[in-house]
Amino acid sequence: MSSGGAAHDVYETRGRLKGAEAADEFDRWRQLPPRLYPIEAAPIHPDLWRLMHRLRLRYAREAAPALVARARDEGWDYADLLKVLLAEEAAGRDRSTRELHRKAARLPSGKTFDAWDPKASAIPGEAQWALRTLDWIGRAENLVLVGPSGTGKSHFAEAVAHAAIDRDLRVSWFTLESLTATIARSRIDASTGKVVERIVRSELVVVDDIGLLPAGADEAEALYRLVDAAYEKRSLILTSNLHPARFDTIFPKGLATAAVDRLLHHAHVIVTEGRSHRLTEAVEGRGVLGLQAGESAPVHHR
Fold this sequence. Notes:
The protein is α/β, with parallel strands linked by helices. The chain has helices at about 10-30, 45-55, 60-75, 80-105, 125-130, 135-140, 155-165, 175-185, 190-200, 215-230, 255-265, 275-285; strands spanning about 140-145, 170-175, 205-210, 235-240, 265-270. It folds into 2 domains: about 10-95, no CATH class; about 115-280, Rossmann fold, CATH 3.40.50. β3 (about 205-210), α10 (about 215-230) and β4 (about 235-240) form a beta-alpha-beta unit.
């Protein structure tokens, strides 16, 4: 039986993705013909400043002096000036919201696709690009990354999470241990259902490193509650050194079977293979910066 609480559906996620496309269009409206803004534009009229302050148009207010001066110099139509001012406000609010979502997600290390080497990954190239479109999140599908440590699972998962935030989606990041602790704390005041409901308000939930540490009934229950609540409503990313078909080797069989059944029904399972990238960098001396001659030697006190 699915968890109770307010229903979430894929239409909400698709709406957010469409909203991100609109935000990109608004941002393009801010791209004016190439010319430097006046370095010290005259302040806008005090009444206009007060109105923008009253309406909480912070970003439009900050951009207004330069834009109004330029509009006056170049003879803009009033509608063009209003359009660009509102585009500044929309873009500023979008930036602020994304940063709030990024902080709330508590992503572990800031790894994005800027630092990702597609050719060095064991994930097939076509699968990488398809997953980076995030279309699968709009369909409430899951992604399971399976493979040994150091093969890029967590990096790819975090990069997808950052990309989702940049598309105005909400993200939550957990390890299996932190998810279990969150569910366990909720038992104190019998708020487990509300806590799980709050977690799946995010359009994407990531659970990292399943199988690295010993797990038992509490971990199995936490994972099952999440998978059940997200089923066909939200997308999950799971990273593990074990294929989900082997989760019954670390979890009680009944809960493992129920969780895996729902997890894999609409899932892309990617197996990463090969040698650990971290170990390779360490062996080749690329894990640290080389020590330079002349660096201060340690001081030994007697």
